[in-house]
Structures are given as structure tokens and as C-alpha cells.
Amino acid sequence: MFVIRLRGTRLFGIALGALLAGAAPAARAQDSTTCHCRSTPVRPEPEFVRRSSGGVAFIQSRPLGAFGANIGFGYGAEGTYLFRLDRRGILSLRGDVGIADYGNESKQVPLSSTIGGRVQVRVSTNNYLVPMSIGPQLTWPTGGVRPYVNAGIGGQAFYTESHVDGVNDSNDFGRTTNQSDFTSSWSAGGGVYVPLSERHVKVLLDLGVQYYAGGQASYLRPGSIVDLPDSQIAIVPLHSETHLLLARVGVKIGL
User: Fold this and answer.
1) Ramachandran bin of 223, using left for φ above 0, alpha for ψ from -120 to 50, beta for the remaining angles
2) Domains in the chain, CATH or no CATH each
3) Which is deepest, 9, 10, 104, 231, by most CB within 10 Å?
4) In the predicted model, is pLDDT for residue 7 greater than 80?
């Protein structure tokens, strides 16, 4: 009877040891799943950023009326900023600034009378138009084609600049503003957005046109600067109202 009890105690001890040995890895595995790491909260984007979008575009300026009789088409670039005033983006505040070159000329001359004709440079003159406006925009925010209309107030800057660079290279080493002027204007326009990508960042094709009703301004065109003897020049400015159409092809990036 004593032998049976002793054997039963040994068997019980062996079973208990095996149970504890199996429980230890399970306990370690359970402890390994417990992480005391500090989680870093993801900060949401500021409301200003989430409501903002922008765009860049190639532009063509088409002067109208007397302005169109004096100068030709201009070509350049424009930047646009939009701030959504509602969650869907139906009403936004829009700002535009562009620059277009509407005429240029160049000629090759000696660097100086002292050096003579051994060192030649190129004198180039460019005429620039800078339209700018700010105002509201209404947009249909969904669909494959999203029309918009806008209006604004702003102005138009005109300036003519001459610079000198080498004949055999493009190193610019001299620049002068020959004439400049500014006039106020109001604008109205419209166009369409066509979605190109709506994944992480929305990209839309922007096709539009804008009418600028500009006031009286003085500006130059190719031939308005006449070279005189003794390194003097005569400037013959043109003066008129500055109405124009601005055609735009670009992309809008953001909501």
C-alpha cells in the first residue's frame, strides 16, 4: 500500500512539473504581446492647409481695342491660389498673378568704344505685362467636367527691361528697366476643371479664359526705344486703355 502511494506521488509530481514547464513559454508569449510603447498621435493638417489649393498655367494675352492695335499677343505663365470658403469647395477666394512677354528685340554691338569691335555683346529688350486679380470663384465640385466662374479686382503692371549678355554665351551681366507703369483693373472669367488624378493628391486640368478691363496706362513695344548718338536714347511710349483676354491652359493641384 505504501509503495502504491509513493508511486502515485511521483507520478503527480512529474505531471505537475510538465504542466508548469508548458505554462512558462505560454506566459512568456503572452507577456511578449504586451507593449508599453508610447503611441505618437497623428496631428491633423491645419484647416488652412486642407482648404488651400493652387495651380500653374501657360497663358496667352490677347489685347483688345486700341490696346490690341498697339501691341500683339503675349505669352507667359500664371500662378493661382484658391481658398475654399465651404467644405465642398463651391465658393472659394481666388488670387491670380501672371507675367507675359508681348514683344522683344535684340541687336549685336561692341562692348565699348574703347575696346572696339573685338568683343561683341547682345543687347536684348523685353516688354512685359503682369496681370493680377483677387476675388470670388464659384465651382461645380464634382463630375468629369467641373465648370467654374470667377470675378475680381486687381491691376496690370507694365515694364520694359533691357539686358546685356555675351554673343557666345548667355551670361547676363547688365540689366536696366527702361519704363514702367501700373493701372487698376477688374476681371471676370470662367473655365472648366477636368480630373486627371484623384488619389493621394488631386490633379485637375484647368482650361479657362479671363477678361481684364484695365485703365489707362503707358507702355512700350518693340521700336519704342530709339538709340541716339553719344549713347543716348529716346523713349516713345504708347498710351491707351488696357483691355485684354487671358487664355489659360494649366493644372490645379489640391482639393
Assistant:
1) left
2) 50-253 (2.40.160.20)
3) 104
4) no
Q: Which position has the grid cell 464659384?
A: 138
Number of H helices, E strands in the chain: 3, 12
- pLDDT tens sequence across 34-49: 556 566 665 666 776 8
Alpha-carbon Rg for the chain, nearest whole angstrom, is: 36
pLDDT tens digits for range 106-130: 998 888 777 778 888 889 999 999 9
Cβ neighbour number for residue 55 with a 10 Å cutoff: 22
Report if pTM > 0.85.
no
Q: Residue 143 corresponds to which amino acid?
A: G
Within 10 Å of residue 172's Cβ, how many Cβ atoms?
A: 11
Instruction: Quote the cell numbers at residue 221.
Output: 513695344
Closest CA to 192 of 144, 131, 133: 144
How confident is the prediction for the chain on average, in pLDDT?
85
State the number of CA atoms in the 13 A half-sphere of 31 facing the CB: 6
Closest CA to 214 of 242, 178, 172, 235: 242
Please give the Cα distance from 241 to 183 (Å, whole number). Answer: 9
Q: Which residues contact 93 (CB under 8 A, 6 or more apart)?
A: 82, 83, 85, 134, 135, 136, 137
Query: Whole-angstrom Cα distance, residue 250 to residue 96?
Result: 13
Evaluate whether 184 touches 158 at the Cβ level (below 8 Å).
Answer: no
User: Would you say 252 and 89 are in contact if contact means Cβ atoms under 8 Å apart?
Assistant: no
